[in-house]
Structure formats: C-alpha cells, structure tokens
Amino acid sequence: MPKQSSLFLYFLIAVTFILAGCGADIDRRVTFYRDEAWKAEMEIRFPADLVALLAASPESLEAEIAQQVAEWEAEGAQVKWNSSREDATLIYTFEVESEGLELLNEIVFEDNATITATEVDGRRQINFSYFGSRNLVGANSDTLTLQGGEIISSNGEKLNNGTVQWANANGRMNAVLTEKSGSGFATFFLIVLVLGGLGGGFWYYRQKNSYSPPQVAPVQTAFCANCGTQLSPQAKFCPTCGYKQ
Description:
By secondary structure, the protein is α+β, with helices and mostly antiparallel strands. It has five helices and 13 strands.
C-alpha cells in the first residue's frame, strides 16, 4: 500500500511561494515510549495571506485536513486537531499517538528521516537522523523537540536529561536516546482492556451475589374446631362432623 502524503508536506509546499518574512512557524514535539509507541504534538502558524496565495479558504483547508486525519486514523493513529485564528494568523494544532517508527516518519517527518530502534546493553535505543525537507526552507521558524528516557548523544541543544531540541537547524539533526517509561499508546490500551475486564468481573460478581431467589409463601393448614379434622383454608364446614368453621 503506497504511503499517504504528509499533512506537513501539503502545507509546506506553499511556503516556497511566500515572500521573505511571510513564511510559516512550525513546532514539532515527539515523545518516544516503549515498544515503538510515540506521541507527536505539532503546531503550524502561518499568515492568512498564504491561503489567498493558494486561492483557497480556511474551510477548504480544513476539509483537506479532515481527509488527511482520516487517512492517519485508517493506519492506526489516534488524532486530535484544532484550528484557530490569532489576528491575521491561522493556527493548526495536532496531537497524534500511535505505534511504529515508520508511521511516525510518514506523519511528522515527510518520510525524510531515518528512525530505528536497537538494543544496547539491555536498553532499547532510538537512533534518529533527519534533514528537513526543502519545503521547510521558507519557514520563519522551525523547531523540533525530541523526548525520551535519556539523551545519549545528539547535535542539538540538550534541554534536560531526556529532551533535545533544534531551532532553525541548518543541516542534519542526529540523536540517540532511550525510550521513555510510562503510558504510551500500547500501554494505554492495555490499561483500558484490563480495567474493562476488572469492571466487568466486578459487575458480574455483584450481580451474582446480590441475586435472591423468589420467596414462596408457606402453605397454610386449618383444622376443625370441633373434631380436629384437617381442613383446607377455604373450607366453611367440616366434611367429617359438619361443624361450621
């Protein structure tokens, strides 16, 4: 199955047609979790003039976004996105979670990165190498942040032990980092399944132990007040002595 074009690629093709100083502001943040689970947070801010240059409207752009998001979801990603306007700036934000480094490369890095996972001394490591697409050349700013358990090496700015960042990088971006512990995409669904199973079991237990069989009224017995013959509760006369009951 051929890969779908990246949403970033769709927007950023237009950047090359924008005059200096009118390009987009691009911010991408990727967190690597265990077993190739990941989360990407992305924001694109660009002047509304860009829409006019494309002979498009915000509504038509959002229709394209919705179509692209549907394609990502069909490939197994969970996507939340939002559009807003700040003065003359259009802002699109995305939060994407999934598994698989190949899908991450497709969605966030225009299929232009090399991202692999290896195990070294019992620890899984992410090897990352990326040279920004030429479509990013006209951007006002381009910020990329990677988060993991530990940054082992990189040519970016190390913000803390588990975070590295490149701002307007001129050249290839390289990093080696470990996966971050915590609830990634797969762990989240495992937790949901476990809690769902426990909840169902608890409900069954409560239903089973709260069940009470229907109460059966005891059979009433009557006796003749004169001779003591056993009678039915509805008897008005004793069948033995004829005494009125």
